[in-house]
Automatic annotation (TrEMBL):
Keyword Glycosyltransferase set for record: no
Pfam family, one: AAA_lid_At3g28540
Residue ranges of the TM segments: 7-28
Origin: domain of life: Eukaryota
Gene Ontology molecular function terms on file: ATP binding; ATP hydrolysis activity
Classification lineage: Eukaryota, Viridiplantae, Streptophyta, Embryophyta, Tracheophyta
Signal peptide feature range: none
The name this protein goes by in its record: AAA+ ATPase domain-containing protein
Cofactor (UniProt): Mg(2+)
Compositionally biased tracts (Basic and acidic residues): 469-485, 493-505, 511-521
Any single biological process term in GO: response to stress
Domain AAA+ ATPase per the UniProt entry, residue ranges: 256-410
UniProt keywords, alphabetically: ATP-binding, Magnesium, Membrane, Nucleotide-binding, Transmembrane, Transmembrane helix
Length: 529
């Protein structure tokens, strides 16, 4: 088709001949698997190349799917693929289809062996899509390459006339990448990744990717998250600043990442906040289940496989790792040592120790920018119900840059939820609810549940009555269970004293954190009350 077009446009026969020669070479490269070629290939393709060299003024640029020893997917390849997806739909007979953001739409790209023509400022260029079998690699390379190491190696090759060299290399290709990025944004389906247990990474000799994913479609946004409007505005501004901070991070020599610590009792909206952050930034989420990660090396591999524009989440960090008490430097160093010596990838047939050996030092290393050096634009979020249990080293500034307390529902948060769930700005029961919320602690999750209509007959009146009832019950329970609670607190006292903190829901640590934050002046406190 390309040849026909060239003839029609009246280009000289030398160009046509050269294109034939180039296409001939390409065809033969693609037919490598045929036995027939083994006989002719060596002679004919050499002649074709010689012919091309004599008359061929064409140059080519190859853009492969993987770069850097196949550990990292090439951004350029993805961008070219996205750019060509538009062009592909026009002139290509065989297309590959993938899902797009809009559930009914498909993103089309060229199948292997297809070719598409493009024109830029009077220069005509040709793109070809190819793939070849991966060479047999050793176990370690296959491990680090993951599933990708077993896949065919895809690449695009761009052909253009020598006289268009600088136009193509300096202007056209950067433009293609830029337009490709725009198409990617348009079609991007955000994903929620979860890590596969490391014992399944190497399954009967087949190296799997460390992550599996589903499409991320969480409806929570900052518009439906109940919290102090000033704090919400600040968090959004912080996220916006991060997203557009590429040059800033480069200038100050920091890895382009930011750590958030979300702490507070269960049901106060920590997970909801992560979803809102992902929706606000349009990022993917990588949810790391640390108990399924067996060594520090595995943790590094997981991190290397994350892509930029992502939020890496470790929920309930205090439950995932034994981080209580002082930092056991020696134990951590020993673990690290073991990890370096023998904790690496498990080969097929080897027995896997299933207990997690991820250490605090491994985790610190992970968030310290050492591994984030392999790519930018990543946010790391830890959540915990017990901030007092976390090692100070883990949450110090530079690691967890921003500490956000998510607390029980206050009157402002209640009014916000009433507006969101019931579409009411005021109601005679508001004052009663406000008073009760001052006396008992109820999480936004419980308030939201009470405000959710349970039948078609339910309206603001019945829902608010339900909430008042629930709050009164909680108040009674608190009054009758007060003595018991005091006893329990006394029992907990020794441990709390050991830690040098007051007992209870970690208020001591929270207060400490607040004081420190006041001193440093940099933190967010989501005081919903
Ligand atoms: N501040 C809030 N604003 C709006 N909805 C909230 C808020 N907090 C909680 N919710 C709602 O309550 C439910 C539970 O909240 P979420 O899972 O975010 O709590 P969590 O703090 O992550 O709890 P856990 O510590 O148990 O993981 C969600 O459906 C969420 O939409
Ligand atoms: Mg949660």
């Amino acid at each position: 088709m390309a040849i026909e077009a060239m003839m029609l446009s009246g280009l000289n026969s030398g160009v046509v001949l050269s294109l034939i020669a180039v296409l001939w070479t390409v065809v033969w490269q693609n037919l490598q698997h045929l036995q027939l070629q083994q006989f002719f290939a060596r002679h004919l393709s050499r002649h074709a190349r010689r012919l091309a060299a004599m008359v061929d003024p064409y140059l080519s640029v190859t853009i492969s799917e993987y770069e850097g020893g196949r550990m990292k997917r090439s951004d350029a390849y993805e961008e070219v693929k996205a750019y060509l997806s538009d062009a592909s739909a026009r002139g290509v007979r065989h297309l590959r289809a993938e899902g797009a953001k809009d559930a009914d739409k498909l993103v089309l790209s060229m199948s292997d062996g297809e070719e598409v023509e493009d024109e830029f400022q009077g220069a005509r260029v040709f793109w070809g899509a190819f793939s070849k079998q991966p060479p047999r690699s050793d176990g370690a390379a296959a491990f680090w390459g993951g599933a990708a190491a077993q896949e065919e190696r895809r690449f695009f090759r761009l052909y253009f006339l020598e006289r268009h060299r600088s136009l193509v290399l300096d202007t056209y290709l950067p433009r293609v990448r830029q337009l490709g990025r725009d198409v990617m944004v348009k079609n991007r389906q955000r994903k929620l990744f979860t890590n596969i247990s490391t014992s399944q990474w190497s399954d009967g000799g087949y190296m799997r990717s460390a992550w599996s994913h589903v499409v991320f479609e969480h409806p929570k946004t900052f518009d439906t998250l109940a919290m102090d409007p000033v704090q919400k505005k600040r968090i959004k501004a912080d996220l916006d600043m991060f997203k557009s901070g590429k040059d800033y991070y480069k200038r100050v020599g920091k890895a382009w990442k930011r750590g958030y610590l979300l702490y507070g009792p269960p049901g106060t909206g920590k997970s909801a906040m992560i979803a809102a952050m992902a929706n606000h930034l349009d990022y993917d989420i990588y949810d790391i289940e640390l108990t399924s990660v067996h060594t520090n090396t595995d943790l590094r591999k997981l991190f290397i496989e994350t892509t930029s524009k992502s939020i890496i989440v470790i929920e309930d960090i205090d439950c995932s790792l034994d981080l209580t008490g002082a930092r056991e430097k020696k134990a951590a160093a020993e673990e690290d040592d073991k990890d370096k010596k023998g904790g690496g990838p498990v080969r097929p047939g080897e027995k896997k120790d299933t207990s997690s050996k991820v250490t605090l030092s491994g985790l610190l290393n992970f968030i310290d920018g050492l591994w984030s050096a392999c790519g930018g634009e990543r946010i790391i979020v830890f959540t915990t119900n017990h901030v007092e249990k976390l090692d100070p080293a883990l949450i110090r500034r530079g690691r967890m840059d921003k500490h956000i307390e998510m607390s029980y529902c206050g009157f402002e948060a209640f009014k916000f939820l009433a507006k969101t769930y019931l579409d009411v700005d005021s109601h005679p029961l508001f004052d009663t609810v406000g008073e009760l919320l001052r006396e008992v602690q109820m999480t936004p999750a419980d308030v939201a549940e009470n405000l959710t209509p349970k039948s078609l007959d339910d309206g603001p009146d019945s829902c608010l009555e339900d909430l008042v009832k629930a709050l009164e019950e909680a108040k009674e329970k608190k009054a009758s269970g007060g003595d018991e609670q005091d006893k329990q607190d006394e029992e907990e006292q020794p441990h709390a004293q050991e830690l040098g903190r007051r007992p209870g829901h970690g208020e001591g640590a929270v207060e400490e954190a607040k004081e420190k934050e006041k001193a440093s002046g940099g933190d967010e406190q989501n005081q919903q009350r």
